[in-house]
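Table S2 (text version). Query chain:
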Amino acid sequence: MNSLQVSASPHARALISTRHIMLAVIAALLPAALNGFIQFGMRALILLLVTTGSAMGFEMLARLVMRRRQTVLDCSAAVTGLLLGLNLPAGMPFWQAVLGSFIAVVIVKQLFGGLGQNFANPAIVARIVLMLSFPATMTAFQIPGTDAVSGATPLVTGTAGYWDLLLGNTAGCIGETSAAAILLGGLFLCICGIISPVTPLACIGSLALCTWLAGNDPLYQILSGGLMLGAVFMATDYATTPLTKPGKLLFGIGCGVLTFVIRQFSTYPEGMSFAILLMNLLTPYLDRMTRTHPFGADNLAGKEKPNA
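Corresponding structure-token output:
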């Protein structure tokens, strides 16, 4: 008889690590970052370096002060800083961008226990805080190829062409203007198995349906603003989104519907950040609603315990 070796689960460990996942996300964000550099110039590149570097610096300092194991090398702080930078206008003052990195890494992430313990996407929260605190600089969008600044984005003007929206020849945040660059990065993550396409497709599809029912142009709404960047890179965050496929589907639908409601009925032309934050708060309930139960667990729970 062959002997059996019994050990506690898990019995298999994936070869991919947190660092590998974060490096893949960084690679997927490079097309959007490159497009931002091409459209908005050296100022955009420097801002991305500032947010990424300051985010890593704050992570290292926070872990040192709290006397916890250093995690800066897992590159999660670099992803947070890069995402934050891509969600900012190219002309954003550097000190405000650094403040955003502090909010994202120290307040939202580290004070709640670090990677995987944060209740919301750090870059999203930081962007919302900056938008509410510095509305003038957060809406001073540079016109591509010039030094001119305009507060009007395609969502406000409604006059941009589909080709310009696809390639990023419009005013907006550094990483949100080119739908093609974002789709390229998202396709790379899906092929690598880093993210599931369920949430982005549900988000984009629900927004398109609501926009069509309201009598507006669905394609224009999809390609404009921060919908694509949020749906692909922030609504798929491991720590703040549901674990199950039904949960991911409901999360994506919620993001799309809330984005439509905010864009359609509020004074904010863009609603993706608020939509993701609100759905982040609902993630524990979505996981509870959609979690699977082990086969036979209900039957075992209903049996009486044997007498001792």
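Notes on Table S2: The longest strand covers residues 141-142. The chain has a mean pLDDT of 88.
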